[in-house]
Write a structure and sequence with these properties.
Blueprint: E1 3-8, E2 12-17, H1 21-30, H2 33-36, H3 58-78, H4 85-97, H5 108-113, H6 117-126, H7 131-139, H8 143-151, H9 158-164, H10 170-183, H11 192-198, E3 199-202, E4 207-210, H12 215-233, H13 236-257, H14 269-275, H15 281-285, H16 289-299, H17 305-315, E5 321-324, H18 330-347, H19 351-354, E6 356-362, E7 379-381, E8 389-391, H20 392-395, H21 397-400, E9 405-412, H22 417-428
Antiparallel strand pairs: 1-2, 3-4, 5-9, 6-9, 7-8
Helix pairs in contact: 1-4, 3-4, 3-10, 4-8, 4-9, 10-12, 11-12, 13-17, 18-22
Domain HD/PDEase: 54-185
Protein name: HD superfamily phosphohydrolase
Organism: Chloracidobacterium thermophilum (strain B)
Length: 429
Amino acid sequence: MALRRYSDPVHRIITLDRSLPFDALLMALIDTPEFQRLRRIRQLGLAFVVFQGAEHSRFAHSLGVMHTMTLALDTLQRSGVRLDAQVCGLARLAALLHDIGHGPFSHVMEKVLHQRHEDWTKRIIGDPATAIHGRLTSHDPQLLDTLIALLEGQFRPRFAAQLVSSQLDCDRFDYLLRDSLMTGVSYGCYDLPWILHALTVDTTNDSLIVRARGVLAVEEYLFARYHMFRRVYFHHALRAAENMLVAMFRRAVTLTHEGRLAFPLSGTAMDKLITGVPLTTAEYLSLDDADVLFHIKQWQRDPDPVLSDLAGRFLERRLFKSLDVSALSSEAIAEVRAALESALVKRGWPPEFYLLEDDAGDVPYFGPYLPDAPERHIIVEDHQTHPRQREISEVSAAVQGLRPYRLRRLCFPEDLRDIAHTTVASLVS
């Protein structure tokens, strides 16, 4: 059949037409082992331990970003913007492949690997041994360099790079709606069709601008992202689970170096990950969520009491509790830490694995804080009858009020909650 349709909870139906050259290439890329692997990687990492519906995958999100890019380009063309077919095809390819480099549980494992998924994306695309590389080069040998330049933001026309990655891009357009729907919250809802309807291109510099009629919709979108970070991505229980996973891997690394890890699978990708041996592209691509969960299930039977306890707590969802210390001084935080460390030592629990510090923060909108980085700005028209182009925080008091923030929390076993709260109460009083 010429048409392929994907049923999608956000966009309803995503359609590709094999008779169109770029659609045929997109279909071939979707069918590669590297892209199919994204079905086995959760979009929101460990969020399922808090939001039971958050089982959606990077595969679904990547299709959604590609579809959103198609909608954006079609809307621009209908509004009179002249677009080159090759540029449109490249933008859709970049949208589809932008997350191909994610490891198990998405962003969580980046803390373990100390590597960025963006770097792995470029490595996978550029590795001649991958099926993705083969599909791209067989379509056009020049595609690779151009596609990587687009993913890095080093591409002209500029609006295509902005739609791939900016503060108003197709990645965010999709993940806010998708993550909001799948977690069962309404914080991420905003009017995507109206934003796309309001987009146009400044012909003097090939950059995206938002017409005046779209300013309120963009405000709503920026606040949706702000609330999703505060209420979902930085949820205290989710962050505790992430920190516990990182602590588990730190313990496994320690035991491996001491020759005491009871379940080493010598020579495997996971073994190399734990021992710090660089992974080949093929080894990295062999890892998904199931590999990590499999090892955690083995670790709960490890003779080491720390590793087995952390693994058991994680699998049974006996998560560490969190104490928000954002408002406390450094001295007060040190006192709370000292009280908790003392209690942990008395119980025989090493503080380095049972007292975890969570430091999270975000800049909801960069514009006012990076005045010399116009690529991080959202440019809007300030009036419908005599429009001038201005950075959105100059027009919107609501956006101007979006301030950077930082959350600091201490995570520890539930047994220590009373000690933590008593210590804080004594400091505050």
